[in-house]
Design goal:
Elements (H helix, E strand, L loop, with lengths): L11 H16 L2 E3 L4 E6 L5 H12 L3 E3 L14 H10 L4 E6 L4 H5 L7 E6 L5 H15 L6 E5 L6 H12 L3 E5 L16 H7 L2 E4 L17 H5 L3 H5 L6 E3 L22 H22 L5 E3 L5
Parallel strand pairs: 2-3, 2-4, 4-5, 6-7, 6-8, 8-9
Antiparallel strand pairs: 1-10
Helix pairs in contact: 1-10, 2-10, 5-6, 5-10
The structure holds phosphoric acid mono(formamide)ester.
Subunit structure: Heterododecamer (2C3:3R2) of six catalytic PyrB chains organized as two trimers (C3), and six regulatory PyrI chains organized as three dimers (R2).
Organism: Virgibacillus indicus
Family: Belongs to the aspartate/ornithine carbamoyltransferase superfamily. ATCase family.
């Protein structure tokens, strides 16, 4: 794997292997035994993904180079390509990128000689979020085959929906979408169901926030959003006994989900965030190993 850009790059067995590595890192300390540098280039706001990569990198022993887009030379007109080449030139061993463009990788792909991990590309993909969602589902059910998963919310503008629908189908789950009229993505070949049907029939209810930042001021269908399209307390009562709630967060409490449900018994929202650290450790070690940096050192086990 040269860069990790899309979940489509991974076979079913590679996904299981990454989840296994993540669970290993959950229980054991591992570090690379040579000095390595990571650059986290976030051109869009992030709380979870950026800090989760930071924790993952620090746990693996990487040093993190300082970058804040608003205080960087991108403000003087430097391109993404030249920014990445700069980090490559000064010795970064890994570059993590979040950018508002859907296709930023096309500008970089074969021209840079440093591994890149996609931490969110426009409306297109969020592959590490997808893998942590898979791990959270797998830890619940120990399978994907036969599960009914609904992805509900602003499907049209969501990179999480695009990554997750493709991969959950590949792993054997039956995927449904649920969205208000303005948020339907006609290009996605999955059946749409109502939130009532989703709550009553699905094993996993994955909610998404309205992606205001990608609407170009064209907001539609937001009136009575929670009652019409969100997970209300009344709908939660009708969920299957074992069914779980996921959300990549940030959550807009009271919009796509009733605030009281964010931390309810069925919710795995904060577990998703914890799993994100270990999934990112697994992806970082996989890509660095595949670039020839193989010498990890085991530290004493935590338990
Ligand atoms: N889930 C997610 O990508 O959250 P952040 O935008 O806070 O990174």
């Amino acid at each position: 794997m040269r860069h990790f850009i899309s979940v489509n790059q991974l076979s079913e067995s590679e996904i299981f292997s990454i989840m296994k590595t993540a669970e290993y890192y959950q229980n054991n300390n591992f570090q690379f035994n040579r000095q390595l540098f990571a650059a986290n280039l976030f051109f869009e706001p992030s709380t979870r993904t950026k800090n989760s990569f930071t924790v993952a990198e620090k746990k693996l022993g990487l040093e993190i180079l300082d970058f804040h887009s608003e205080a960087s030379s991108t403000q003087k007109g430097e391109t993404l390509y030249d920014t990445v080449k700069t980090f490559e030139s000064i010795g970064a061993d890994l570059v993590v990128i979040r950018h508002e463009a859907d296709a930023w990788i096309e500008e970089l792909d074969s021209k840079v000689n440093v591994p890149i991990i996609n931490a969110g590309a426009g409306k297109k993909e969020h592959p590490t979020q997808c893998l942590l969602d898979l791990l959270t589902i797998y830890q619940e059910y120990n399978r994907f085959k036969g599960l009914k998963v609904v992805i509900a919310g602003d499907i049209k503008h969501s990179r999480v929906a695009h990554s997750n629908a493709m991969v959950l189908k590949k792993m054997g789950a039956t995927v449904y979408l649920s969205a208000a009229p303005g948020y339907v993505d006609e290009t996605m070949d999955f059946p749409y169901i109502s939130m009532d049907e989703a709550a009553e029939t699905c094993d996993v209810v994955m909610l998404l926030r309205i992606q205001h930042e990608r609407h170009d001021g064209q907001l539609t269908g937001t009136e009575n959003y929670l009652a019409n399209y969100g997970l209300t307390k009344e709908r939660e009562k009708r969920m299957r006994p074992h069914a779980i709630i996921l959300h990549p967060a940030p959550v807009n409490r009271g919009v796509e989900i009733d605030s009281d449900l964010v931390e309810c018994e069925r919710s795995r929202i904060f577990k998703q965030m914890s799993n994100g650290v270990y999934i990112r450790m697994a992806i970082i070690s996989k890509i660095l190993n595949e670039w020839g940096i193989r010498n990890e050192t085991a530290f004493e086990k935590r338990k």
